[in-house]
Amino acid sequence: MKKDKVYIIAEAGVNHNGDINIAYKLIDAAVEAGVDAVKFQTFKANKLVSKYADMASYQKRSLGNSSEQLKMLEKLELKFDDFIKLKKYCDEKGIEFLSSPFDLESIKFLEKLMPYYKIPSGEIVNYPYLRKIAEKNKPIIMSTGMATLSEVEKALDTIYEVNNNVEIYLLHCTTNYPTPYEEVNLKAMITLKEAFKLPVGYSDHTLGIEVPIAAVAMGAQIIEKHFTLDKNLPGPDHKASLEPHELKEMVKSIRNIEKALGNGIKKPNKSEIEIKEVARKKLVAARDIKNGEIITEKDISIKRSNIGLSPEYYEIIIGKKLLKKIKEDEGFTWNHFMEE
């Protein structure tokens, strides 16, 4: 992960609908959009949820029914061998492969496939899970949706108890699909940064691309955003995801904002140096003045001019004797006040 650019994760999640061929197409779309990584979700459905677990309200809305969560996830599950193939395909396409593990077995499986571990929001109080990831000694990106500040602190303490030197990035997140703007609370990302002195980012579930762009302007170092091939496909997350052309536009906008943020040093840019000579005014003669005359306020005009002293020297030349004649609108220079 480069420190000098925003790391953009295209969250494919389960938008492959359990079909590896769709997963390949999602990788292609992520590459075309110019993101840094494409991320999936790795789980064994029967180890992730019990047969009595209900679906979330947004899942019921998206699917139009209220079947058991287990049955839904079984249809969205990819085999471990599928992820090995997807990792290889990502390598061939020059994009980083990531996947969030949702159980201990998946943590172990993904260890050799990824440069980082991505902890989903739902696991932030799963302390055995957090300890197992900490043991792997890989950088961690942790989403914090649904969590209080004290829960984030406890999660970090749990990780640090196992591995005090692990590199951690915190993602502010609102776990609602889609997230209404009034629930985004982007300022909480800054709260995380100030509270824990860690680099932060934003995992977005809003519709559109405005909020992740704003997060970059506020200092997000990582952006994660769900995407799909088609919002009308069946599945729990498609409707709250970007389509490929939208993902590409988000990446373009983020890179533009990234450039616009600059380095923070307040000084004229290269292009401004030339413009400054035209835009800033100078001290010019208000009339024809003969040598030997004493300059008064009435003798000075402040106008744009190719040649002339800066207005900051206005008071300095008042009262000085002009040693070289000057014509009206001609710029004063120090030579006008010096002996030859």
Automatic annotation (TrEMBL):
InterPro entries cross-referenced by the UniProt entry: AFP_Neu5c_C_sf, Aldolase_TIM, NeuB/NeuA, PseI-like, PseI/NeuA/B-like_N, SAF, SAF_AFP_Neu5Ac, SAF_PseI/NeuA/NeuB
Transferase among the record's keywords?
yes
Keywords attached to this entry: Transferase
UniProt key word Transferase: yes
Gene Ontology molecular-function annotations: N-acetylneuraminate synthase activity
**CDD domains referenced in this protein's UniProt entry, alphabetically:** SAF_NeuB_like (cd11615)
A Pfam family: NeuB
Domain called AFP-like: residue spans:
282-340
* Superkingdom field: Bacteria
- SMART domains recorded for this chain? SAF (SM00858)
| EC number(s) from the headed UniProt entry | 2.5.1.56
Q: Which NCBIfam families match?
A: NeuB_NnaB
Q: What is this protein called?
A: N-acetylneuraminate synthase
Q: Gene encoding it?
A: neuB
